[in-house]
Structure formats: C-alpha cells, structure tokens
Write a structure and sequence with these properties.
The protein has 97 residues and is α+β, with helices and mostly antiparallel strands. It contains 3 helices and 5 strands; from the N terminus they run E-H-E-E-H-E-H-E. The structure holds zinc ion. The site of zinc ion has 6 residues, from loops.
C-alpha cells in the first residue's frame, strides 16, 4: 500500500523537503497531475503559495507520496520531464508473478 497525504501549509512543505523523502504530486485543474522529486526546483514556493494559500486549493493541490509508483497508482500522475523522478515504475509486489 502506498502512502499519500495532502500538503496544505507551506510549513508542511518545508518540513517534507527537509526530510528529503518521497515525492510530490501536483494536481492542477488545467492539466494532468505530475510527480516531482521532493526537492526539485520546479516546485516553487511562489506557485505553492498561489495555489494552496491564495486560491485555497481551487486551482491545484499538492500531495506528498511515498513513491513514484504510488503517484502513478493513486493519481495517474506523469513524471516531470524537468526533474525526472526515478524511472522505476514497477511495484515490487508484482515481481512475484
Ligand atoms: Zn519536476
């Protein structure tokens, strides 16, 4: 089972990035969800503040996920072409078949 949690404050985002574990999925009403490396430069504090704080998550939402596989399974997210989170998309549990 993958883990996900919505990031609703800048402080949460800051702590997650300090911990440097997992990935971030950005849901945007204007395009498909994208998964980014947690410390990728393409996740900007300004964009976060606009979407999450000013627009109260109406135009987009940020989620922490434990893996790229979870991002694919739970959000049907595509990998960011800029920061390129890991290419391994196969869930290890499928190796037994
Ligand atoms: Zn990215």
């Amino acid at each position: 089972m993958g883990e996900t949690s919505e990031i609703t404050t800048f402080e949460e985002l800051r702590k997650l990035r300090l911990a440097d574990e997992g990935y971030i999925v950005i849901e945007d009403t204007a395009r498909e969800p994208i998964v980014h490396k947690i410390n990728a430069k393409c996740i900007s504090a300004d964009n976060f503040n606009v979407k999450v704080t000013l627009n109260a998550r109406r135009t987009g939402k940020y989620f922490w996920v434990d893996s790229v596989a979870t991002a694919g399974r739970e959000f049907a997210a595509r990998r960011c072409k800029v920061c390129r989170p890991e290419t391994l998309l196969v869930d290890p549990s499928t190796f037994n078949t």
